[in-house]
């Protein structure tokens, strides 16, 4: 298979939001294919008609889009390929690798009850497996694939190693139901084969499925894909990640304002590592990602680590790209879009906003001085800094700033001189200045705010506060 171009896929079911575990599997599949010049495909496993919804399909597409996981070609609907799945079941039947089973649900249950009572295996063995077709009744039937009765099936897994399953543990699984609809187990194999998938990367809860799905590959004489079953994601308490741990859907993380690059970095680190590297770029992840780095035990989702990495990605991001992603966040959360003036201010101020902001809401909070309009209404905490004395000092400061050259050194010099003249420290003036310029007590440095706001706006805000 070494000369075959790599083809990976992600195959989510559209029965709800896109789970964070699905997103990580998609990421691993994307990294593996992209690094090797291969193809990464998307298949929507929408065969469960009761539970599949267009809204859920939309959520999957949006989640992939937000995470920046681009796939090749069109998304494929599994349901739309039902005729092809049936065709394969019929072909196996014709070749003698599958058979018609007429056993009813009641008969199967009776068999299991009897086996249980006798302490035998309850794995159903159909009496129709080797029946003469001339004895077939005119009744509904399912098509079952013939599993080998003895020996072993070996899954040569890239993450789990060699996994051996005794064939007497495998049942003759149903590939076509009595109403003519294909089963999931058949559909997956036919789709993977037809899509040319060379590497199946998925959660290790599918490991047993691999042994059963190999029955179809072998019956059809198709080459097996390379399997890589990765451990599941657990919550901080060591139990399978669920709603009680917090957000489990990808779009919830977008809504909470995590940057996509930070999310990709963190998801890559869940169950895979490259030495001690925690923070890395997409290019590094592509260069480094391989199955050797995947662990065998479940990884634990840690919100603190996610926030820490996201903060590093926000700080490292190009200003224009960061502004673009911030605007996408505002649109996704139905917040008011930025005005042209706000956008210009954000572009000027990004250098002093992006340090130490871990999420977009934190970035927006730091940018309050840009996004707010005069007159500034200070919040309760910062209002305490605007007493009579400090207002007087701001009043004195304003004319001196009128003629200042508007650079950091000049501004620091003027504020320091004013503080000295009043026998106080520069730090003591920071509180009133923050209150006047931003109406908040926690902001970027007062000099950064002055530089971003410009001379006219700064002086107007100081005059408002002094008055």
TrEMBL record:
A motif ('KMSKS' region) lies at residues 240-244. Keywords: Aminoacyl-tRNA synthetase, ATP-binding, Cytoplasm, Ligase, Nucleotide-binding, Protein biosynthesis. The keyword Iron does not apply. Residues 6-307 form the Glutamyl/glutaminyl-tRNA synthetase class Ib catalytic domain. Its EC number is 6.1.1.17. It is an enzyme of class 6 (ligase). It holds the Pfam family tRNA-synt_1c. GO terms for molecular function: ATP binding; glutamate-tRNA ligase activity; tRNA binding; zinc ion binding. Coiled coil: none annotated. Its main location: cytoplasm. One of its GO terms (cellular component) is cytosol. It catalyses: tRNA(Glu) + L-glutamate + ATP = L-glutamyl-tRNA(Glu) + AMP + diphosphate. The keyword Ligase applies. Residues 324-465 form the Aminoacyl-tRNA synthetase class I anticodon-binding domain. A motif ('HIGH' region) lies at residues 12-22. GO terms for biological process: glutamyl-tRNA aminoacylation. It is found in: Cytoplasm. NCBIfam families: gltX_bact. Monomer. PANTHER family: GLUTAMATE--TRNA LIGASE, GLUTAMATE--TRNA LIGASE, MITOCHONDRIAL-RELATED. Catalyzes the attachment of glutamate to tRNA(Glu) in a two-step reaction: glutamate is first activated by ATP to form Glu-AMP and then transferred to the acceptor end of tRNA(Glu). This is Glutamate--tRNA ligase. It comes from Marivivens niveibacter. The lineage of its organism: Bacteria, Pseudomonadati, Pseudomonadota, Alphaproteobacteria, Rhodobacterales. The gene is gltX.
């Amino acid at each position: 298979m070494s000369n075959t171009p790599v083809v990976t896929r992600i195959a989510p079911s559209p029965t709800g939001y896109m789970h964070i575990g699905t997103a990580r599997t998609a990421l691993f599949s994307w990294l593996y294919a992209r690094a090797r010049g291969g193809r990464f495909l998307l298949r929507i496993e929408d065969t469960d008609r009761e539970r599949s919804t267009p809204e859920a399909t939309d959520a999957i597409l949006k989640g992939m889009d937000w995470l920046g996981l681009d796939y090749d070609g069109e998304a494929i609907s599994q349901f739309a390929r039902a005729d092809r799945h049936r065709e394969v079941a019929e072909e196996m039947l014709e070749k003698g690798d599958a058979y018609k089973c007429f056993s009813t649900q009641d008969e199967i249950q009776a068999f299991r009850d009897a086996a249980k009572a006798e302490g035998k295996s309850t794995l159903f063995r159909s009496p129709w497996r080797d029946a003469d077709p001339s004895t077939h009744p005119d009744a509904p039937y399912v098509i079952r694939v013939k599993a080998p009765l003895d020996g072993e099936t070996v899954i040569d897994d890239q993450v789990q190693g060699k996994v051996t399953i005794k064939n007497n543990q495998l049942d003759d699984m149903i590939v076509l139901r009595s109403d003519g609809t294909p089963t999931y187990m058949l559909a997956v194999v036919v789709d993977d084969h037809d899509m040319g998938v060379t590497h199946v990367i998925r959660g290790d809860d599918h490991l047993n499925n691999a042994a059963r799905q190999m029955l179809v590959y072998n019956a059809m004489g198709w080459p097996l894909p390379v399997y890589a079953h990765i451990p599941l994601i657990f919550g901080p308490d060591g139990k399978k990640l669920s709603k009680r741990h917090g957000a489990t859907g990808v779009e919830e993380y977008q809504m909470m304002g995590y940057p996509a690059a930070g999310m990709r970095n963190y998801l890559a680190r869940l169950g895979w590592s490259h030495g001690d590297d925690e923070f890395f770029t997409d290019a590094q992840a592509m260069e480094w990602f391989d199955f050797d780095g995947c662990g065998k035990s479940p990884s634990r989702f840690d919100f603190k680590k996610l926030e820490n990495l996201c903060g590093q990605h926000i700080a490292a991001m190009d200003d224009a790209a960061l502004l673009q992603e911030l605007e996408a966040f505002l649109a996704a959360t139905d917040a008011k879009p930025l005005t042209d003036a706000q956008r210009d201010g954000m572009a000027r101020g990004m250098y002093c906003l992006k340090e130490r902001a871990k999420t977009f809401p934190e970035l927006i909070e730091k940018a309050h001085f840009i996004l707010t309009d005069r007159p500034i209404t200070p919040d309760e905490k910062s209002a305490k800094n605007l007493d009579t004395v400090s207002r007087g000092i701001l009043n004195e400061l304003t004319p001196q700033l009128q003629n200042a050259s508007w650079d950091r050194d000049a501004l620091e010099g003027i504020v320091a001189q004013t503080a000295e003249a009043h026998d106080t420290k520069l730090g003591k003036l920071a509180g009133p200045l923050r209150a006047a310029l931003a109406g908040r007590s926690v902001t970027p440095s007062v000099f950064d705010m002055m530089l971003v706001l410009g001379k006219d706006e700064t002086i107007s805000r100081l005059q408002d506060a002094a008055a």
